[in-house]
Design goal:
heterodimer, A: 333 residues, 5-stranded parallel β-sheet, B: 477 residues, rod-shaped
Chain lengths: 333, 477
């Protein structure tokens, strides 16, 4: 797939649709979440899925791994989980006729698709063990840096922070997630379908839509989608609007936000927008793409202050306000 | 037509729609305010035309022009290519396709694909209707035209509104003039004045009758005018004969009188004649008196002619005394009427103006004319100065115009201040005060006169204009 040739856009769309179809065989009623997860994966980003237990988060990730024909590892984060359990460690190997030696035993992080289940149940020390892997796609153990196989994705799930026995993720790690998606309850129709599928004999098998190499190609192709200067400016505008210290910040942002979104938010916005544009049959990024991904790309990167927490203000509310305001401003001539 | 031309056409169309939309938006915002101001201006102009005539005109004109400028301003606005593209995207609900077309580099396969995609969207999309914008603009146009053309009928200077207003003002002023007139005739009784007074009373009754036809008023005004005209011509002819009469009367009792001696006035001649009348009086210049009697008779002064003939043929002092008494009585009546000459001349003007106002062709109101009492008939009517020196019939007939400079004492009394400047053609002497000084004090004086007066608000502007009208004009050298 040649990134300079837009004629591959149709093939791009077909592959993505096929992936959605395959995962959709198992996952019901989470179409939007599924699409956003796929977009994040194509963009090479990690996804944090938040939702109460039982909504199919883990199943979604397992299905994706199957459909993508990627090596998959699952880690159940618990409070006693240690970084070595995650990354791997050197173990002493004794063989006959030779001196004992240390040999590296890779942890579950050495895979293409890592499911970090209930990531916020681990301690911050263990959570932070993933920082290097997520950003540099490498792991340093015992002074030796080992690269991870490409593609590498972390799809973490977490329970809402209010639940017992959870540790909030550090901001640095949150920022490394491309999207933070909120998995909600399915509607009634989808719920009935879930009941049917899970309580009757299930013969559904997920077929591979494409492999890791093709996934990398899809990502490279999507990056070639052109962005008009004004749309790029609007992406920056949207991110800057979350910064309370800027003059263009709204009164709500100034009142409730402690730190605004980082540049990674802008990157995520534009990359995701490019993929969405292709999926919508366009050859350029539009404002509606930016607005479509404002919530998943910004909500975990906007750090609210104590006043917001005390007032029960959610980042989604502030971001929605910003989007509404910007949408009006962008359409005015 | 290639794809670029299609796109440019769509851009131009979007630009026009954007202009129309902006104009409609401005019109929509401005119309309620403009309507309220316009209606308020019209109501004020109707309630008090004299006060708000000019302001209503200015408000309506400015309002209409401002509205026109506001609405037409966006039509002149130039949109940048990006703005036009945004307008196109907005109109056709395109996902920033036109913007991307305009902003992305003009080469490469992605650009070609983008153009193909955008053209496909352009062809599939239909322009949104602009019915609401068109309605708004049509409404704005109607309002502007109404303000500029139709709204003009509310302006008091327009004949449809102005004529009745001016007519009312004129008739009110005429009413005041007739009151002055009646007062004068009552104070200076004579047959001719009595006739005029009766005609004036008939006119006043007609004026008070609001139901009276306009033609009736015109007839009555014409009647009064005829009477005044007859009296004025009679007075003119009498005045031309009076010097000869005085000369003839002096010569009748004093044949030795030198022709180079200063001519006496008629009253002086009559007094001297009565004092020196001998018992065996016979007129020395009977033929001259006969000739004068003939001229008087031809001029319509039959009473005077009759008295002169009696004097010419008198054979003794008794008959002569009887003729002299008749002469004095007749002259006294004529002189009393002559006192009203200036008033009659002015009344002629006022009646002419009233007639124009009544016929609906008035250009200005009677109220602009100076009143009788301010023009040499002191003591008559409102606004006169009670301390003004009384004139006599003889002095008014024979002497130069009376000049009465205002002093501090006279300024402190009366409703209005009157000042007659000693003009060059009067006493042949320089004015007591320079015109510039007079003009400087005239303004404050007129202000002083108006402010304490309990004038109706409606008339205040008229009074002010009256004072401005009589203010001496300073001619710059």
């Amino acid at each position: 797939m040649n990134p300079s040739d837009p004629s591959f856009a149709t093939e791009f769309r077909e592959k993505i649709r096929k992936l959605e179809t395959e995962v959709g065989k198992v996952i019901v009623g989470q179409d939007k979440v599924l699409e956003e997860v796929i977009i994040a994966i194509v963009a090479g980003g990690h996804v944090l899925l938040e939702g109460v237990p039982g909504l199919g988060k883990t199943m979604l990730v397992r299905s994706l791994a199957s459909a993508l024909d990627l090596s998959f590892q699952r880690i159940q984060f618990t409070p006693d989980l240690m970084p070595a359990d995650l990354l791997g460690t050197n173990i002493l190997v004794e063989e006959a006729g030779s001196h004992p030696r240390f040999e590296f035993s890779p942890g579950p992080v050495f895979c293409n698709l890592l499911l970090g289940d209930e990531i916020n149940r681990a301690t911050p020390k263990t959570q932070s063990a993933l920082l290097e892997a997520m950003q540099e796609h490498s792991v340093t153990i015992g002074g030796k840096t080992r690269p991870l196989e490409r593609p590498f994705f972390v799809l973490a799930t977490q329970n809402p922070l209010e639940m017992e026995g959870t540790y909030p993720l550090p901001e640095a790690q949150l920022d490394r997630f491309f999207f933070k998606l909120r998995v909600g309850y399915p509607d009634r129709t989808a719920f009935e379908e879930i009941l049917r599928r899970t309580t009757e004999p299930n013969t559904t098998t997920i077929q591979s839509a494409f492999n890791g190499t093709e996934l990398n190609e899809l990502g490279d192709f999507a990056k070639a989608v052109p962005v008009p200067p004004e749309i790029r400016s609007r992406a920056a505008d949207l991110v800057m609007a979350t910064h309370p210290e800027t003059s263009s910040a709204s009164a709500s942002v100034k009142k409730f936000v402690r730190y605004g979104a980082s540049p990674r938010a802008g990157q995520a916005l534009l990359l995701a927008s490019k993929i969405r544009a292709l999926l919508q049959g366009r050859f350029h990024v539009a404002s509606e793409d930016l607005l479509a991904f404002a919530l998943p790309a910004l909500r975990h990167r906007v750090l609210l202050n104590f006043e917001a927490q005390a007032d029960g203000i959610d980042a989604d509310v502030l971001i929605s306000e910003i989007c509404e305001e910007k949408s009006k401003a962008w359409t005015s001539i | 037509m290639n794809s670029s031309q299609d796109f440019q056409t769509a851009l131009r169309s979007a630009t026009r729609r954007q202009h129309l939309r902006l104009a409609a938006r401005i019109a929509r915002s401005a119309l309620p305010m403009a309507s309220v101001v316009a209606v308020a201006g019209m109501v004020l102009a109707m309630v008090s035309p004299q006060l708000f005539a000019d302001s209503a005109r200015v408000i309506i004109l400015l309002l209409a022009l401002a509205l026109l400028a506001l609405v037409s301003f966006p039509l002149k606005r130039r949109l940048s290519p990006s703005q036009a593209a945004k307008a196109l995207d907005h109109d056709l609900q395109l996902p920033d396709s036109a913007l991307a077309w305009v902003q992305l580099p003009n080469s490469g396969k992605w650009r070609d694909s983008l153009q193909a995609e955008t053209l496909e969207r352009l062809r599939a999309a239909s322009s949104p209707p602009l019915s609401s914008e068109k309605k708004t603009l049509t409404f704005a146009g109607i309002l502007i035209l109404t303000l500029l053309l139709g709204g003009w009928i509310w302006i008091p200077s327009v004949p449809r509104v102005a004529a009745p207003a001016t007519e009312t003002a004129n008739l009110t002023a005429l009413d005041e003039v007739l009151e002055d007139w009646t007062t004068f005739v009552e104070e200076n009784p004579n047959p001719a004045g009595e006739e005029i007074k009766q005609a004036a009373e008939a006119l006043e009754l007609a004026l008070q009758d609001r139901e009276a036809k306009r033609s009736d008023l015109l007839v009555r005004i014409a009647t009064v005018e005829d009477r005044i005209e007859a009296n004025l011509s009679s007075m003119d002819s009498l005045q031309s004969l009076l010097p000869a009469l005085a000369e003839a009367l002096s010569a009748a009792v004093d044949p030795s009188r030198s022709p180079s001696s200063p001519p006496p006035t008629t009253s002086e001649a009559l007094e001297k004649m009565a004092a020196q009348l001998p018992a065996d009086f016979t007129a020395n210049n009977a033929s001259e008196l006969e000739e004068l009697a003939r001229q008087m008779s031809e001029a319509g002064h039959t009473a005077l002619a009759e008295a002169l003939r009696e004097l010419a043929i008198a054979s003794d002092g008794k008959q002569a005394q009887s003729a002299i008494d008749k002469l004095a009585q007749t002259l006294s009546d004529a002189e009393a009427l002559a006192d009203a000459k200036q008033m009659m001349e002015l009344a002629q003007m006022q009646l002419a103006a009233a007639k124009e106002g009544t016929s609906g062709d008035a250009k200005g109101g009677l109220s602009l004319l100076p009143k009788l009492s301010e023009l040499g008939n002191p003591g008559i009517g409102a606004g006169s100065d009670p301390d003004f020196p009384e004139s006599t019939a003889v002095r008014n007939l024979d002497a130069a115009p009376l000049l009465a400079p205002i002093n501090s004492a006279s300024q402190s009394t009366g409703e209005a201040r009157v000042q007659v400047l000693p003009a060059a053609e009067g006493l042949q002497e320089s004015p007591a005060r320079a015109p510039s000084n007079t003009a400087a004090t005239e303004g404050p004086l007129s202000e002083e006169a108006i402010i304490p007066e309990n004038l109706p608000v409606v008339h205040r502007a008229t009074v002010r204009r009256y004072f401005e009208a009589i203010r001496p004009k300073i001619e710059t050298p």
